[in-house]
Design goal:
The chain is built from five helices and four strands. By secondary structure, it is α+β, with helices and mostly antiparallel strands. α1 packs antiparallel against α2, α1 runs parallel beside α3 and α4 packs antiparallel against α5. It is elongated. The termini are far apart.
């Protein structure tokens, strides 16, 4: 029973430290140094606890399997948590040939800021829509675009920082205006 309990502890420790790593990397990329440093401290502390349990019983393949399974499960959990928290903003760029006016009106009606620029495509002039939204709301905006302009060419990319303009806030990650 001790062997099974030890393996479970190792698995659970990895289920904590790997998601911390995922969130830490996201915070680093977003320039959140203090948060990343605090997460790094706890991530390394939990990792040391997990690996010391493995080294304490090197004769137990179950501990090694628990370590690896915890890493795999922690990776999936970290990705899920990161998507759930979805910090930051994204830029949605849509090139729309038909129905651009209705799409822009609908997006603005729903509270999104939309900037329209005229571009030139293969078939002539096309409106290009720029919409910066909290990442948590990107799928919502993409749904509106699909409904109004199913043939639109759309790209989505992360935004390092957005200042000013019309940025809707969402949930517990309010938009910071400076």
């Amino acid at each position: 029973m001790d062997t099974l309990l030890g393996a479970l502890v190792i698995f659970l420790l990895r289920l904590v430290d790997v998601p911390l790593s995922t969130v830490r990397v996201v915070m680093m990329v977003r320039g959140q140094r203090r948060v990343a440093a605090v997460l790094a401290f706890f991530e390394s502390l939990v990792w040391i606890l997990a690996i010391s349990q493995v080294f304490a019983r090197l004769d137990s393949p179950l501990n090694m399997l628990a370590f690896a399974a915890g890493f795999a499960s922690g990776t999936a959990l970290g990705m899920t948590l990161e998507a759930w928290f979805a910090p930051g903003q994204v830029l949605i760029r849509a090139i729309v040939r038909e129905g651009a006016e209705a799409l822009v009106a609908e997006l603005r009606e729903q509270g999104y800021g939309v900037t329209v620029v005229r571009g030139e495509g293969r078939a002539g002039e096309v409106p290009i829509l720029f919409i910066v939204v909290p990442r948590r709301r990107a799928e919502e905006v993409l749904g509106v675009i699909r409904a109004h302009a199913p043939r639109a060419f759309v790209t989505v990319e992360g935004v390092q920082r957005a200042i000013g303009g019309h940025l809707p806030s969402v949930g517990f990650f309010p938009t910071v205006r400076r």
